[in-house]
Write a structure and sequence with these properties.
437 residues, Hypothetical Protein Pfu-838710-001, 3 domains, 36% helix
């Protein structure tokens, strides 16, 4: 087993026991920095330490030894397939199951909760309020996902794809924003945590947008007119905008090729064969912030990015990402392939782990603080980064499916120059020295 794989294994054992890195370090009489190095694959415990870890983590020494030299660790991905009315989700789910099962994945389908509830006789109209119905639906959705995630940890296959037919954030499209926020608060959670609990989001556009002749009402719970379907499709896109990995599959192709595009997008996310990230970067004139915030398909995210001590070929960083007091935390490792391509591996970490990793900060690099505006326009996903050091310009990043994909730029985005190949605008180098305006 590669060090990083074994590190992930130790990380999962620690989280299952609800320990912090500091606690493990205290129990073993070592530094929490050493525990961090194990979990990031930069080093491995010796045999005596592995024996102590087996006791601390309530597992057998034989299992830990076996895992240190094998690859039998579950690799679980949880994605959401969403979309507007009559988008082809039902057919797409069947294709996803067949396609990825043939490629060695165990595919678990979490069925659409709204359909389950209405099929059992629980309709929104018989509840005291829409709030009560949505609360029931979200509670059921979260419980189902929890059950599937727990089951996935104990499957024989190590490659597991959990596909949710809609996710918690879909409910936002059926509620007022303040009502949705209050509901999540009542359930002890928030929008950032729920949205980013999924690894990737794939949205199929309703046939009401561009293929009106194919739109039909032959569905048990579908009653929307073409215009209502368009509006609902827009609301669902707006609800998910802001997720780090959000892809839209529109109706520019016929349905068969629409499904092929979906499978390609999911394959790309899963890293078949490796998780390449392709993006272009531009310097743009400082945007009208009030205008950005008025757009329906725009969400603001605050980001604090800290670089860790790294090897010469791997860049390591931790990131705090969220809004108001609601944040999620990530550890990211990147390896450069070319100016456009990088292999990127990212995983969620706890707040305690984030604080522990801060001790490994590279003090030669400054912490990058920025506000990111995530926009979805013409099914193209844009990220505009606003830095406190700049008042005249900002950075625009556009993720691409392939290196030759054309890019549409809205009128309110004024390009100054492309800096994709300019190393001075790479985040790592900007942490060394912020380019002047």
């Amino acid at each position: 087993m590669k060090n990083i794989d074994f590190g992930n294994y130790l990380y999962k054992l620690r989280k299952q026991n609800h320990y912090t890195q500091k606690y493990v370090a205290y129990e073993l009489g070592i530094s929490d920095k050493t525990v961090s190095k194990w979990e990031t694959g930069n080093s491995k415990p010796d045999l005596d330490t592995l024996r102590l870890l087996s006791v601390l983590y309530h597992t057998s020494f034989e299992e830990i030894i076996s895992c240190s030299s094998s690859t039998n660790l579950p690799n679980i991905h949880k994605i959401v397939l969403t979309g507007g009315p009559c988008a082809g989700k039902t057919t797409a789910l069947n294709h996803i199951e067949q396609y990825f099962s043939k490629r060695g994945y165990t595919v678990l389908l979490v069925s659409e909760t709204a359909t389950e509830l209405t099929s059992s006789g629980l309709f929104p109209t018989i509840c005291n309020s829409n709030y009560d119905y949505q609360r029931t639906q979200i509670m059921m959705q979260k419980e189902k996902e929890k059950i599937y995630e727990d089951a996935a940890k104990h499957l024989k296959n190590t490659n597991i794809l959990i596909v949710c037919d809609r996710g918690v954030i879909d409910n936002k499209a059926y509620m007022k924003n303040i009502e949705f926020k209050r509901l999540l608060s009542d359930l002890g959670t928030n929008e950032v945590l729920e949205r980013d609990s999924y690894d990737a989001i794939f949205h199929l556009v309703s046939t009401a947008k561009g293929r009106e002749k194919e739109y039909n009402l032959n569905h048990a719970v579908r009653s929307e007119t073409i215009q209502e379907a368009k509006d609902l499709d827009d609301k669902i896109i707006a609800a998910w905008t802001g997720h780090p990995y959000f892809r839209i599959i529109d109706n520019s192709l016929d349905f068969e090729n629409k499904l092929k595009q979906l499978l390609l997008e999911i394959s790309s996310f899963l890293g078949e064969p490796e998780p390449f990230e392709i993006e272009r970067k531009y310097i743009i004139k400082y945007p009208d912030i009030s205008y950005l915030e008025s757009l329906p398909f725009c969400n603001k995210v605050n980001i604090i990015q800290t670089y860790l001590k790294s090897t010469h070929d791997i860049e390591r960083r931790i990131r705090c990402r969220g809004v108001e007091d609601n944040f999620v935390y990530y550890l990211t490792e990147k390896r450069k392939i070319s100016n456009l391509k990088r292999i990127e591996v990212e995983r969620r970490i706890s707040k305690d782990d984030y604080l522990s990793f801060l001790l490994e900060s590279d003090n030669s690099l400054r912490t990058i603080i920025k506000t990111r505006y995530c926009l979805m326009i013409h099914n193209q996903y844009y990220e505009i980064d606003i830095y406190p050091e700049w008042s005249k310009q900002a950075i625009l990043e556009v993720e691409l499916r392939d290196e030759n994909e054309s890019i549409y730029f809205p009128d309110f985005i004024n390009i100054i120059k492309e800096v994709t190949d300019d190393d001075s605008y790479k985040n790592y180098n900007m942490a060394k020295s912020m380019p002047k305006e």
